[in-house]
Design brief:
Blueprint: H1 2-9, H2 11-25, H3 27-51
């Protein structure tokens, strides 16, 4: 019952669960996910730099 402990755990664990489920879909999807995630990190860093 993964859904049950997800409710108990919170959003952080849910994010990890989504990543692991993404890995099971295939290496190509994982590569796309990594690229998207890296883009988000860079955008956030750029945003914080411009603000501060």
């Amino acid at each position: 019952m993964p859904g049950y402990w997800l409710l108990l755990a919170g959003p952080g664990i849910r994010r990890v669960y989504q990543k692991t489920r993404h890995i099971t879909t295939g290496a190509k999807c994982l590569r796309v996910w990594r690229r998207k995630e890296r883009g988000w990190v860079q955008a956030r860093r750029r945003y914080t730099m411009t603000k501060g």
